[in-house]
Every structure is written in C-alpha cells, then in structure tokens.
Amino acid sequence: MWFRHDPAGYHILSRLGGGRYGVCYLAENTEGQQFVLKRFRPRQQKKYPDDHRHEAVILSGLSHPAVPALCGIINSPSGYFFVLEYKKGKTLKHWLFRDHKVFSDSEIFRIGSQLFDILIYIHSRSVVHRDISIANITDDGEHISLLDFGLARYTDRDGGILPSLDFPYVGNVLLYLLCSGYKGDRKKPWHEVLPLTSAQKHCLLHMVELEEPFHDTKEAAEAFHSSFFPHEGNFPKEHFLF
Amino acid sequence: MFNFFSHSSSSGRKPNPNQAVDFFQNGGLFGVFRGSSSSDRRRRKGQYQRGYHPNIPPQVGYPNVPPQQGYPQNMQQPNSASSAVCPKCGASVPAGSKFCLSCGAPINTAAFCQNCGKPLPPNAKFCPECGTPRR
C-alpha cells in the first residue's frame, strides 16, 4: 500500500521511478487499464507552482504513438497527480546498466531513427524536449517512447529555446548505445577510439556540437540515416520510419 | 559564434558530449547515478564547457555569472487573456490544457494552432504566434 488512500479511481501497483519532480507509479483503473500516475512533490509544487502547467499544455497538444498522452489530472489528499498513458518497455538506462545489453548496429539504427521521427514531430509542433536521455526513453524491442516532458517548452527564439537544443542530447543517447559493446581503450576521447565510420563520426560530432551544429531536425535526421544505416545483415525496413 | 553567456540555463541546458564515455571511464555504481542525473549535470557545469569547447580550459575567460536555481525563468506565464475558466471549480486554466489543473475536470475548449502547434487562447481567431486562422 503506497498511500493511505489511493488516488480516486486508481489502484497503485508499483513504483516505476522518480526524480526531482516527484515519483511515477504504475496504476490501474477500475476497468483494469494500466496508467502511469506522476505524483509531484508538494515542495517542488510550492517552489515552482507553474512548472506542471507547461507539461500539461504541451502534452495536451501532442498526439504521437511514441509520446504518452495526458489522460487526466488528480488533485486529492494523497497528492497531485498527472494520469499518463503507460508505455511498455524498459528504459535504455535499464537495458544498459541493469541488463548489460549490447546494442547491435541495427538496433542503434532503429532506436535512432525512431527517436528522430519523434523529434521531427514534436519540433513541428514547436516543442523542445530539453531532457532527452537514456532514462527518458523506453524500448520494448520494437518501438521506443519518449517520456518526461517536465522540462519541455515551446520554442521561443528570443528566449533561446530552439529545437537544436535537443540534438546534443540525442547524440549523447547514441553514444551510450555505441559504447554498450565497447571493450577497448577508455582513456581517449570517444571519437578516437569507437569503431565508427568517418560519416558516423562526423554526424555525431555535429550532433554534440563539437563541429558546426545541424541547422534543423530534418538535416540531422538525414545525416543520421545516411551514416548509420546498417549495411550488413537483413535489417527489417519497417523498423525505420523515413 | 561562441557565446560567453552560453552556460546560462535560460538558453537551455546541453549535455556533456563525453558523458556516455565518462561512465565507462569512471565505472562503478557511483558512475551510473552521476552519469544520468539531470540535477547532477547542472552541478558539473564545468565539464560541459570542457565538452563543448575542448580547447578552452575551464574557468578561464568566463564571467562570474551567479548560478540559476531551478527551471529557466523565461517561461510563458499563463495570464487571464490566454487562459480559460474551469466550468466546475472556476479556476484559471492555461490555454491548451485538456484538463483543469486544479480539479482535473476535462476542458473541451482546448485548441492548438494547425500550423505551429502552439496553444490558442480561448476565442482567438488567429494564432498569436504565426497568424494562422483558427479552424
């Protein structure tokens, strides 16, 4: 039992994870459907009372199979909750550091191309995520989902909130995946030791802004697609969305 | 062009591009938590600078900008002109939200611009951002 009183209409099953904002729980409603209940810490809510407004508005305006939909808001004695669509799968952080999974070239390509598909969508809706990380991406083996829009904002050119802010985060996620099977020298910079083709190396250097950054999401996606397409093996083409 | 004020959180946080490799270099459980915490990334701001500007030593040439706490402050604050009123509890609901943030009641008037995707204020005939007519 997690709370003295379960949030109205929901029974909490387990704790999924937490962060500075609060804690996420897996819960089911009276019809047995599973949801994620994101409970905000009261102290955080007092300190930043408008933070959850941005997340609520941004999620209300997004409709994509890889983005959890906002299904409701609960303000009850047991806390303040967002009811979010439950996306199956484990986070990339879980796959890497608990299951010690080594990602193949085709899996990296699938995850990367699906991630760019999501980015193209949210950037077309003027949303910048700003917190893409291995802890905020789930993968069920076929499809990924992008979670946690708590730091997401609408683009604001005067305020410096630009879609290009997301590219270094994506580059970082790809580097985590590329490092998953790496066993060699760990003292030198990644771009000197990882077994990358010249095109892959330059794509990543552009992405993490060690070289001139990409100008828009489509350019970044095309560079990723052309440099990371796995030439060996029988890669199922339905897994990439371009 | 290099911006001396680029490490202000108002212009967006950027991850350390060597973060993934840092984990494998550091190793250990401690590295797991250090490597992926959002708040930790803020604390290790000096490493961002090394990551993005490898030829510039950290703490050289940077102005002494006080650290910003919490989220960036350039948020668009909901105001009365761009918000609706919840029919159930009467609370102000930011434009675009599908639910009242106070009582959770569904709000049916939420609308978004077909062109740019930004929320449309109630009764607005055009998107205030791009000017596209409301449909």
From TrEMBL, chain A:
PROSITE patterns xref list: PROTEIN_KINASE_ATP, PROTEIN_KINASE_DOM
Record keywords, A-Z: ATP-binding, Kinase, Nucleotide-binding, Transferase
Keyword Transport (UniProt): no
Annotated ATP binding sites: K38
Cited Gene3D superfamilies: Transferase(Phosphotransferase) domain 1
Sequence ranges assigned to domain Protein kinase in this UniProt record: 10-242
SUPFAM superfamilies membership: Protein kinase-like (PK-like)
One Gene Ontology term of the molecular function aspect: kinase activity
Protein's name in the database: Protein kinase family protein
Organism (species): Sellimonas caecigallum
Lineage: Bacteria, Bacillati, Bacillota, Clostridia, Lachnospirales
Automatic annotation (TrEMBL), chain B:
Coiled-coil regions listed: none
InterPro entries found in the cross-reference section: DZR (IPR025874)
DZANK-type domain span: 86-131
Residue ranges, annotated region (Disordered): 1-20, 33-77
Polar residues composition bias: residue spans: 1-19
Endpoints of the signal sequence: none
Protein name: Zinc-ribbon domain-containing protein
